[in-house]
Amino acid sequence: MKKITLYSFLLLCLLSCNKNTENIESQSKTKTEESSIKNLNIQMNSFTEIDSTGILIFPLQMGQNKRDDGSYSYKKMPDNAYWNIIFLNSNTNEYHLLTEKKILILDYDYKYNAEEGINISKKTDHIFYDVRSLDYNNDKLINEKDPVYLFVSDRFGNNFRPISPANYSLNTWKYIQSSNKVIMTVTKDSNRDKLFDDKDEILTFEIVLDQSETPKEVFQTELKDKLKKLYDRDWKRIK
């Protein structure tokens, strides 16, 4: 009986020690994270009003202080990219983030990619974004090697969603007012080398805003095959 009691006591001591060790490690980890977070500086260098709606957008960058050894606590973001946007309704002082997912915003456009001098502000129901959101080559980074997608939201920064085809990289896009379509050219990783370069095929897609929003290829296989035959006929491959 005494042996059982002794074993029970030792077991309790061991469990208690393990719990204390876990608490100490947890507290140490928390302090390290808090110290690292304190080295971050939220940077709202500029903001823009969406037409005359009173809706303001604040693109977010993040600065950080160097460690004593010259290194940084966080991975460096690509230059000229934003990791999120704050939307502020200046009429009500309500605000929210565009998304809580990990993304890189390369550009945003609420003028529908219109040429200078063309005013379609009366149609500003959407904001468009060039975004990197997928680690396509599985290198645990989101950078210039990963595809660019076209995203859209309403002018309040709600219903943020992709509208370009998955696993294609966006090249150009334009809003066509008369048909309420977005026409875009995208690069397909044709040779499956996890790169988007001049060795790959460039295709044209379209979507109709606020409908199914499923991107569809504009030029069908029949036409593409014809183009290849004509090119091969008129511009023979060098042997």
Describe it for me?
- The structure is a single chain.
- With 239 residues, this protein is an alpha+beta fold.
- It has one domain.
- It has two helices and 13 strands.
- The protein has helices at residues 2-38, 221-234; strands spanning 40-43, 48-49, 55-64, 84-89, 94-97, 104-109, 126-132, 149-154, 161-162, 168-176, 181-188, 201-208, 216-217.
- The strands form three sheets. Strands 1, 2, 3, 4 and 5 form a five-stranded antiparallel beta sheet that branches. Strands 6-7-8-9 form a four-stranded antiparallel beta sheet, with no helix packed on it.
What fraction strand?
A: 25-35%
Q: How confident is the prediction overall: mean pLDDT? A: 82
Care to count the β-strands? 13
State Rg. Answer: 26 Å
Largest sheet: 5 strands, antiparallel
In terms of per-residue confidence, which ranges show pLDDT below 50 for 5 or more consecutive residues? none
**What is the domain total for the residues?**
1
Shape descriptor: extended
H and E string = HEEEEEEEEEEEEEH
Percent of residues in helices comes to: 10-25%
Describe this structure in a few short sentences.
The chain has 239 residues and is of the alpha+beta class.
How are the elements arranged and paired?
Blueprint: H1 2-38, E1 40-43, E2 48-49, E3 55-64, E4 84-89, E5 94-97, E6 104-109, E7 126-132, E8 149-154, E9 161-162, E10 168-176, E11 181-188, E12 201-208, E13 216-217, H2 221-234
Antiparallel strand pairs: 1-3, 2-3, 3-4, 4-5, 6-7, 7-8, 8-9, 10-11, 11-12, 12-13
